[in-house]
Structure formats: C-alpha cells, structure tokens
C-alpha cells in the first residue's frame, strides 16, 4: 500500500472538513469527487466564471446521495474577503484552486488576473488565518520560472515572470510564505505544470492545448501548433494532481522547510509535435475521427519554450508517486471527450 493509499484509508476512518475554492472547475471538481468518495465534508466556493455547474453534476452522479449531502456550495468570488471568511469557517484544510488560468489572457487583462490570483489568494490566506485552518494548499504554476531556462525546473531557482499570470503566481507564493512566517499559518504551494484530464474546458481561444486539440480532432479540424513544435512540456494527468494536493494537505512534513513549494508534474518532457501525434493515435484507435496533420504558426508572446519539472522534492518530502502515465491519461481523456462532446 502506498503512502497515498494509506492517506485515503485514514480519511475514511477520520473524516475532516475541507474547503475547495474553484470547486466547479476542472481540478477543483476532481478534488471534490475524491474527497466525497472518501466521506469528507467539503465546502466549495466558485463564482462560476470559468467553472461549470455541469462539473458539479458529474461529481454528484459519481458519488452516493449520502456522500453528496456532505457538500455545501457557496457561489462567490475569492476576490471578496467576506465570502472567503464565510466559506472557510470551521475548515480543517483549505485547497485553493480558484484562479485566472490563462497566460495570453493575462496579457490582455492584467487587472482581472491580479484581482483573482493576487487579491484572491491573499483573501484566502487571511480567512484561513482568522478561522484557524490547519493548512492552506494553493495552486501555483510553472509560469513562475519565467526566463529561467535551466531544465528540469527546480524549486529553488526561478527567474523573472514573462506574463502577468506568472507574476501573479509568484506573488501568491510570497504572500503564503509571509503568512507562515508572521502568523504561523502552514501553507504548501504546488507549481502545476501542464495538467489535463476529463472536464477540462475545450472551448474558447484560451483553452489548454490537450482538450482543445482533442475537440478539434473529433470534429475533423486541423490543430494549430505555435512555433515549430519543438517546445516541450511536462503533461500531468489530473488524478496525479489530486494526489499531490491531498498529500500536501495532511501528510506530516519534516519541519525543516517552512511554507514549502513543490513542482507537480510527471518529471518528463514531451514535444508539442509529439503530443499531437500521441493524441492523434488515441483518437484514431478509438475510432472517433480521421486526424489531419497540424498547422504551424508563430510562437505566442509570454510562452515558455521548455518546461519540465524536477519532482524529486515533492517525492522525497510527501512521497508523491504519480500513478497515471501520460499515455494512460490521454486514453482516459480521449474516451471521456468522445462521449461528452
């Protein structure tokens, strides 16, 4: 039995009270599903700007009515301190997933990005401190590495952000560290690399590449690659991210590092062109469509050329062990979109 499996078994026998911000979003809804399946009490907060009630409906369909009854939903924004205080009353652990998630959109709307990611994270920290939460686990991003070009990315060496989004995540990490230092609030930051899986929104000009491409391929459309396709990313299936969050929430850590921040990825790299080939193969094998070759276009401003995670820190500290490979995750994701679209 792995450390994570032991943790899940322990949650069943010793339920806790959790707050999940961004609960109707892609990652938030998967966290909710896992927590409810293990008989936890969950308060969810979401303003439904990018999250969807359909994600909550999907969770409800996957758990028992008794488990669903342990969930309470608050509609509101983390940018509202009063909403954060109300939602986090009595919380043991807060998992902060609400956020402005697009690099290109942050360049167009830096104020909106700041309001959600900087002010919102600060509000969550204040509410957690005032309500006596045991720990805040929050979503950071590989975008904090910015112009630091060494690969794989290691937590102790970051550069200057290349976008308002990257800057907002770096500020969130600084605020979390200060709240641990000055108020004794335990925090753990998780620098997500490229997360994918069922329920990720495939529509709009700022959709993540995997759901966008799967949807396009199923419709028989060509996919667009920004640049020559040699850029690399570390793609990580959402179930592995759920594991990282729950381990960060309750796993006992050695007290040497205060307010730790960890990379969350697979520790590998895939070229964008190679990703297209992988998805195309899964689409073809599933018999969903005949896939066209991709189009190539200019690179996007603010994009990082190479992004790969060194996950040794989270593996050593939290016993993180990603259980779902890229290939297996893509297969499950393609299968889900094949029925959902």
Number of helices: 13
- Per the principal axes of the C-alpha atoms, what is the gross shape? globular
Class from helix and strand fractions: alpha/beta
Which quaternary structure do these chains form? Answer: single chain
Largest sheet: 7 strands, parallel
Q: Name the average pLDDT.
A: 94
- Biggest sheet: strand arrangement: 3-2-1-4-5-6-11
Q: What is the radius of gyration computed over CA atoms, rounded to a whole number of angstroms?
A: 19 Å
Query: Which strand-content bin applies to the residues?
Result: 15-25%
| Percentage of residues in helical conformation | 40-55%
The count of DSSP E runs of length 2 or more, i.e. the number of strands, is 13
The parts where pLDDT drops under 50 for at least 5 residues are none
Order of helices and strands: HEHEHHEHEHHEHEEHEEEHEEHEHH
Distance between the termini: 37 Å
At a glance:
It is globular and about 55 Å long. The chain is α/β, with parallel strands linked by helices.
How would you describe this structure to a colleague?
The protein has 341 residues and is α/β, with parallel strands linked by helices. The chain has helices spanning 3-13, 26-37, 53-62, 65-68, 81-87, 103-108, 110-131, 164-183, 209-218, 238-250, 272-285, 312-318, 326-340; strands spanning 17-21, 41-46, 71-75, 93-96, 135-141, 187-192, 194-196, 224-226, 232-233, 235-237, 261-264, 270-271, 295-297. It has a 7-stranded parallel sheet with strand order 3-2-1-4-5-6-11, sandwiched between helices. β1 (17-21), α2 and β2 (41-46) form a beta-alpha-beta unit. α9 (209-218) packs across α11 (272-285) and α9 (209-218) packs across α13. The model has no long low-confidence stretch (mean pLDDT 94).
